[in-house]
Design brief:
The chain is α+β, with helices and mostly antiparallel strands and 274 residues long. The chain is built from five helices and twelve strands. It has two domains: 109 residues, 2-Layer Sandwich (Alpha-Beta Plaits), CATH 3.30.70; 135 residues, Pseudouridine synthase I, catalytic domain, C-terminal subdomain (Alpha-Beta Plaits), CATH 3.30.70.
Amino acid sequence: MTTIEPDSPVRNILLRISYDGTRFHGWQKQLHQGKEVFRTVQGEIERALAVLHKHPVELFGSGRTDAGVHACGQAAHFFTDIARIPSESFIPALNSILPKDVRIIEAAQVSPLLHARFSARSRTYRYFIRCGQTAFAHQLPYCWHIRHEPDIEVLNRMADVLTGELDCTAFSAAGDQSKSKSRYLYGARFFFDGDCLVFEISANAFLWRMVRSITGTLIRLEQRKGCKEDFERILRSKDRRNAGETAPPQGLFLWSIDYPAELLMPQEKPDSAG
């Protein structure tokens, strides 16, 4: 493997990342006395970046994912002092070092003002559900298998509630430390992708385990012949005890992150004010 000599100037590189979360203890690096205690996605990529740069490089992710949760479109950025490599060449360079359960899908130079977490306008998750008596063995690490066949029209009537500024306390996990439980939701829907039922939801941000809490509540409420008004009452109660079970992690994928177009440009636009 060839390493690349560092040079200047510093550039901000935004990555789109795919990973199989099965064998990871989540996205975020966890340290104890300066050493990693679990295998994490952030830790693996930072090790690969250090090999290329010949010095430590900090990686900033758009947000955390829990152990067992996957990603098709996680976003993260880092600052590089390697000047002579085109940004897209970081894709094969990093993938040649990374383990097979982490892949860099895209790499682009962006504005130095872009921060993967704080600049994100929206985040989209998809949750995959296999319905019926059985599922193929190779599908089980990437879906929630349920035995009944839900009524997708009922599910979508309930999901229609999930739009606008909402207090999502009813779907927050006990350990969530967010100061505010309000989030702006851009919408949610169920649809079929082949024979797989998919729940898609977009928001400016999410509480810890919020997507899995909502998914589990909707599926079990439909199973009990609940309706849109029942789901609205759960939301208004602001009480997690009124919601349903938390869906398991393996069906959840961080699907995409959206950023303002001007921050995706390599350089800041000059101020036109006189």
